[in-house]
Amino acid sequence: MKLASWNVNSLKVRLPHLEEWVAQKRPDVLGLQETKLEDHAFPHAAIEALGYAGRVVSGQKTYNGVALLARGPIADVATAIPDFEDPQRRVIGGTIAGIRVIDLYVVNGESVGSEKYDYKLAWLAAVRNWLADELARHPRLVVMGDFNIAPDDRDVHDPVAWREQVLCSTPEREALKAITDLGLHDAFRLVEDGAGHYSWWDYRQGAFRRNHGLRIDLVLVSDALKRHVLAAGIDCAPRTWDRPSDHAPVWVDLDV
DNA sequence: ATGGTGGTGCGACCA
Question: What is the pLDDT of residue A150?
Fold first, then answer.
């Protein structure tokens, strides 16, 4: 089973890229973030035509919005963090062929110390508690998405410039560690130790051309799935296409 | 350099 995550930054604009990328890579499960579409506007027919009979969405206008796609049915769908009031549509989960899959669009946080940053840390704490519960019920768990956190300095093009800045700050990294300490493993780091692999490049200042990126899009696999990881990676190609998302798709291949 | 680019949607906002 090949699973992928992609922040498309408007599914309406990026549908042609999604179609091209899916045709090339054929993921069995795909989690999308920043669809920026209300549920009634989701392009079900186009996505079904790509081979995704299973489609669950939690969208809103202009901001946020997530979707989870699968070849077959998606059961026990979750669209909210339990016991956490949140008007923003940032989470979707379901059970696909016996694997529990959670797709997250983590709060960006704007800047360290801002109101949005405090919301980010509270949101991450609530997600940690939710995932603890999910993991207890579903040992075979995958958590994917735009985490808006670079796990360590290997994931940052200029760690000095980014030191204690939003996406890299110690409290954010500790919040991510509180999640991975549940028994979830960054699939990319199971196959690659080195620095310089990124999944997001700012649209401004030619950041992609200069490879000024961060690795903030992750696929986490539970202890029970760790030994089933065949491969994992980041596909930078769509970032080179015309009118790209600022994020690249990330993926993991499991022998399940 | 208090900037820059892109999406939404037509004025700011969010990233």
Answer: 98
